Amino acid sequence: MVLLDNVNLKNLNTFGLHAKSKGIIPVYNEINVFEVLTERLTPIRILGGGSNILLTGDVDAFILKNEIKGIEIIDEDENQVMVQVGAGEKWHQFVLWALSQNLAGVENLSLIPGSVGAAPMQNIGAYGVEQESIFHCLKAIHLESGIRKVFFKDECKFGYRDSIFKNIVKDQYFITHVVYILKKQNYTVRTDYGAIKDVLAVKGIVTPSIHQVSEAVIEIRKSKLPDPALIGNAGSFFKNPVVSVEMFNALQNKYKDIPSYPVSATDVKIPAGWLIEKAGFKGLKRNHIGVHHLQALVLVNFGDGNGKEIYHLALEICQTINNIFGIKIEPEVNIW
Ligand code: FAD
Ligand code: NAP
């Protein structure tokens, strides 16, 4: 077991925030996890790519940095493959691997930062597809007992940017591998969401391949989202709120341009970015932190900001949205 002391976490979180921890332990396999448990090092926090955390100060814990690699086909037939992926693989590397094998299912999830092990945590999603649509099971180790457990899809309770790992069993399991099912044939590509259709139309593409959908998604993402390598951020800071149709109708009487997307017969989703923009926060710059000028859902660190400032800005945004619209928005990012 290697314990790295005195490491600044700045390069290990996409907000680029300075912080220390009790030590960082790189984990390359399951045995490394058991070694840490035998040493009884507590408390423990698990880190992947650091693209969905906000560090509000030093971390009073030992950090297990997930480096478990490997992409392995474990079963297949003429229609699909079952693939087991090490939780420390980068998500986008997995997407590129799938595309290189002509396997469908992850093309809309191109260019999402972070690790495969964190993908089930919040059931990552983009452009109308969530990872649960290809999820088969995951392998995890219970941190307190050291017992291995396989979680099948139903047990994970996947929801909108949510799973059992984000609430009921939060911080209790180290996810070591995720098993996905990807299609060789008999699939339909999803292009009805956001700007994908427009980008494909401009290129004159009528029946797009999975590669063309992935390229369109990458093009849109690069044009809209701040690159964490250039400006610190953790993607969308807040979840989009879901409200009743009655509440939405009342809001629409007041705000004619309020956008919405149906979730069920009784509920609609309102883009939190619209609410934040309407409340006047878009493009805000306060000391070294702020709200991105193109995407109000993204809080940013311009360079020397600190996590507490970002946290307080997030609270202020939630409070203001509640005051103006009577809607409670919640952070999507994990606050450490
Ligand atoms: P981390 O930030 O390292 O960890 C996040 C949480 O998961 C922590 O609580 C951590 O303890 C836990 N965790 C991590 N690994 C494990 C493990 N192996 N076992 C148990 N717990 C673990 N998200 C989307 O859903 N859709 C998007 O389109 C999207 N776009 C983004 C764009 C940008 C520019 C950025 C910066 C972020 C974006 N995100 C998006 C958010 C983020 O990329 C995802 O949530 C991603 O899955 C986080 O992975 P990570 O490895 O960086 O997790
Ligand atoms: P967008 O396309 O400008 O749309 C704004 C919001 O409206 C999105 O958040 C999306 O909700 C919703 N929306 C748009 N079209 C929709 C449709 N046809 N059906 C249902 N909902 C629709 O959003 P964007 O910021 O450029 O992001 C594009 C996609 O990438 C979204 O899916 C977004 O979630 C994802 N993304 C996520 C993060 C993150 O950190 N979580 C960061 C960047 C992008 P949903 O978010 O529910 O899809």
CATH topology of the largest domain: Uridine Diphospho-n-acetylenolpyruvylglucosamine Reductase, domain 3
The shape is: globular
The order of strands across the largest sheet is 5-6-11-9-10
Q: Report low-confidence residues grouped into runs of 5 or more.
A: none
What is the highest CATH level, the class of the largest domain? Alpha Beta
Number of helical regions? 8
Into which percent range does the helicity of residues fall?
Answer: 10-25%
String of helices and strands: EHEEEEEHEEEEHEHHEEHEEHEEEHE
Q: Find the count of extended strands (DSSP E, 2+ residues).
A: 19
Q: Strand-residue fraction?
A: 25-35%
The small-molecule ligands in this entry are: flavin-adenine dinucleotide, NADP nicotinamide-adenine-dinucleotide phosphate
Cα distance, first to last residue? Answer: 24 Å
Judged by helices, strands and strand pairing, the structural class is alpha+beta
Tell me the count of domains. 3
Rg for CA atoms: 20 Å
Keywords:
single chain, 336 residues, alpha+beta, Uridine Diphospho-n-acetylenolpyruvylglucosamine Reductase, domain 2, Uridine Diphospho-n-acetylenolpyruvylglucosamine Reductase, domain 3, Uridine Diphospho-n-acetylenolpyruvylglucosamine Reductase, domain 1, 3 domains, 5-stranded antiparallel β-sheet, 4-stranded antiparallel β-sheet, 8 helices, 26% strand, binds flavin-adenine dinucleotide, binds NADP nicotinamide-adenine-dinucleotide phosphate
